[in-house]
């Protein structure tokens, strides 16, 4: 297969604010910046560098019209601690009808883009 995903595009009203949130949340580096777009990539030399798709934040004039059709799932080492850290960065918990019995936490970034913080894996399954 010669096809791979280069980047995931995230539409936003303020790419600087949303990219700043994700840069801090993920610990990624800003590799490109123009007035209407910002690119984040994994840390140089990390196992994800050149493997994980970049995140491209694009300025659009319209707010998100409804439920996201695509979202990020994040796998933390400590789910509770990560949820609290993300809240301190400007995220909030979001309810999309997921119920209390699910193993993930639905959240939204500062502009309302939804993402999930998955349950932590047992130590033997962590890479």
Structure description:
This protein is of the alpha/beta class and 127 residues long. 17% of the residues lie in helices and 28% in strands. It is built from two helices and eight strands; from the N terminus they run E-H-E-E-E-E-H-E-E-E. The strands form two sheets. Strands 1-4-3-2 form a four-stranded mixed beta sheet, covered by helices on one side. Strand 7 and strand 8 form a beta hairpin. The chain is globular, with a radius of gyration of 15 Å.
Give a concise summary.
The protein has 127 residues and is an alpha/beta fold. The protein is 17% helix and 28% strand. It has helices spanning 15-26, 79-88; strands spanning 7-12, 29-34, 37-41, 54-59, 72-74, 92-93, 105-108, 114-117.
Secondary structure elements and pairings:
Elements: E1 7-12, H1 15-26, E2 29-34, E3 37-41, E4 54-59, E5 72-74, H2 79-88, E6 92-93, E7 105-108, E8 114-117
Beta-strand share of residues: 25-35%
Separation of the first and last Cα atoms: 25 Å
Q: Let me know the number of strands.
A: 8
Major sheet details: 4 strands, mixed
| Number of alpha- plus pi-helical segments | 2
Specify the structural class.
Answer: alpha/beta
Tell me roughly what share of residues is in helical segments. Answer: 10-25%
Order of helices and strands: EHEEEEHEEE
